[in-house]
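Worked example

This section walks through a single chain of length 965. The input is the sequence exactly as stored; nothing has been trimmed or padded.
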Amino acid sequence: MMKEYINFNTVAKEHKKLYKSGKTWMAATLMTVGLAGGAMLAGTTTANADEVTPVQSAGTIQAGQQATDPELANAQSDAQKQQSTIDSANAQLKDQQNQLSEAQGQQSSAQQELDQAKQAQQAATQNDPAVKQAQADVNQAQQQVDNQQQVVNDAQTALNNDSQNIQSATSAVSQASQAVDQARQTATDAINQAAAQQANEAQNKIDQLESQGKAQASQNLDNQINNVSGQVTDTQNNVNNTNSKISDLQGQVKDLQDQEKNTQTDPNIKTVPNGVIDYSKSLLENVSRNNLWASNNLAENNGNVIPQNIYVSPDNDKEASNPNVNIAPDTSLPIYDNYYTSKFDGVNAQTGMTDAQKQELAILMMNEINHAREQRGLKPFTMTEQKFNQAQVRASQQSANGLEHNENDIVSAFGRDQYECLAYIDANGGGNMLGLLNNASSTISNMLNADASSDWGHRENFLEDTGDLNYDAAFGFHYTYDTNTDSYLYVLTFDYDGPARNNTPNMMDRIAQYQAMGPITGDAKTVDNSAKINNLNNQITDLQNTLSSQTSKLQSLQSQLQNLQAQKANIQFDLNQLTSDQQTEYNNAKETLATVNDWKQGQLSNLDSNSNVQEALNKLSSAKSNLESVKQTQNEDEAKLQQAKDGLTNLNQVLVTKQSALDNAEQKANASANQAVKDAQKKLDTINGKINDLQNAIATTKATISNAQTQLDKDNQKIADIKNNQKPAKPDTGKDEGNKGSETTNPTNPAKQDDGKKDDNKGTVTPSEPSKDGDQKDHQTTPVEPSKPSDGNKGNVTPSDPNKDSETTNPTTPSNPTTPAQPDTGNASISGQAGHKPATSNNGSEVSDNTDTKPTIVLPTTDKENGSAVSDAQGQYINVVSKDSVASQGSQSGIQAPATPVTTNVSFGTKEGTMMTREEYKAQQAKLPQTSDSNNEKNIAVAGLGILAATTFTTMFGVAKKRHN
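Given that input, the structure is written out below as tokens.
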């Protein structure tokens, strides 16, 4: 089903009748609007609930119970005033259109009179002797011009032929020039061919001997390089082994020193800012029991790193950057190291999250979404165990892996259609649950704040206004391998359709359950490891001395290797590299090559003496002479053409003189007929001006109706917002886009989220990968300790999008399965669709189905008229739709405007549509007019009414006076 967000900017009838002529409408308009405005000003000063009377005629004034709220009473009073203005202006519009119809009838009659006058004017000139003689003179002059024009045409034809001849001669010159080039090339090829065989044989022998000499020298250097390279490798291995032993011993020393600390004796208890964590327990239990949440206020830094809220950009600037990116803690500091290790709630890189970890991540993500919803005044989602299990089935389906909202798969997983979001979570850097939570938060942040390519459909699903109900939603996860990026990722699903339909426990209650268990602490005792530490330090000293010697030897060998490699890279041929016989053979080949080259150069320098080349040169000379002759003929023909054009100019001047005489004769012959034409034209112009004035007046009246309707809509919306805070449903925009994958990859350890203090980038960044990563073989490796991320921007970090072919779909009706569409260039890790919306169910739901495309205005009412699950939402609803308002939404929602003008439809009763968004409500509430009960305002209203009436009568008197002058 789709939600329609229709602004009823114009709700007025389309009239076809025309308006009567005259300008008294201006005075009538001023009089009507003035009296209505004065009455409103006087009436609203004492507005109260007892004075509000609903209007049941065409319009949008809301009806319902008697108002008791002063603000509601004022809005209702003003709505009645606007309706009065609309009714008065509609009556005036009808009168204006009638006058216009009458004026257009007069226009047709005046046009007929003008046509008859012009016919009489033409007849007066046909029989005058002076006109006939002047016409004969013009005809004779025209014949002379035509004859001379033929002379010009003939001269132009000759000149055109000259151009063709020049083109032919030029082509002949070009062909002759090409023949010369071809003859020279043929002679050159013959010379080259004669010299090539001997020269190639000599050069091949030279190249062969030089290669043999350099190959022998290279082989000698290779033997030396291999020997030294082997020594370098052995020594480097020794250095690496020694470093590894030193590092291992230093780690043992640190562990022994940590054990000596009285407050940290349990090896699973680790100190972090603001408390401790227990490696034997989950991330969710640790953060809940020890209150290690980051501040719910994103603008505050309390030193903790586990998020409980997520940034949502303003609705009026959805792509605005997060202003809190530099607020998060600096996780590059050593005090945060204990968070970023696979020992703390680690994730298996080969198999992905366990079922318990999937529940844990779903709770942490839903906790962020619910805090963002609560800050916007929305009810939080629940997440029952049954809904969560259904979501895991949905995430494992192939359509979800392809980011496709397949309705059949959705129904098979949940039993009914769902509102749905699909995306990918990057598994890189997710070696423990904290790293994976950071990656998941980045994906959610993209769907909330970077979703323009999907028309913000994902954002709307997460921020759905559920009224007073807690909808049951769940996240689903499926671990898969992406062959395009050669990495693992999680398919993420988010689905809901209404309140919980089962009695399974709400998983979101686990946070409170953990809190009730009390904080995690560790028992303290005294430990003395000094003897062990001293022994280890002695071993470290011995190894460091060994390392120094090994490093010195390694540097010497590396220097030798570099020198040998440089010699091989720059190896040059030397005659001494050959045997005595090879040297003699080499010198003979060099001499032969020089002799052949000398003969070749001599032949090429005298190429034009070749007989074939000489013949081609003679033909080229003849073609050039012919071209010069044709150009001379063209110059002569150009002079003849100019002479003919000069004669034509003179004859045209004579023709102009004769034509002027004819015009004068015609003017004298039809002087009286001309006046009749002028009079008829003047009459027609007067009527046309009158029609133009009426059309302008009609436009002004329509603008008055539109402005009053706009204010009426605002008043009605304010009334609706006071009584009901529901918002309209959203349109379905199609399917998502994304990547697929099926293989395994290297495990990665969790990376810290960026802290934003070492990079000026204001956007979101990808969490850095662990610094250590083994060689990948068959996509399986041994996990290593996670490294910290770069300390870039804090806040909502975004993982790199997988390189998948993006897909979008055209909006479809929810009752049919959505189908894949063409590639899109949006965010590849988020579905390219605007979030899936379920089809309307015949069985009803907890919220009224959107069965109409009309916008909804809420009026005060009782609960009796609403039988849905949201029956405590009060108010009656008026559904209003017009051609203009529907057409304005057609391009976005698929609504088709009527083919012909339609009148406003108004229906009273229970709400069948959907509500405005909270942001629209707040914007309109701020613009609503205010009323007052002060006596001063009463006096001002009465005085204003009197002044306006006087002005109106003065205007009418002035118009009447003008007509009689």
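What to look for: The chain has a mean pLDDT of 76.
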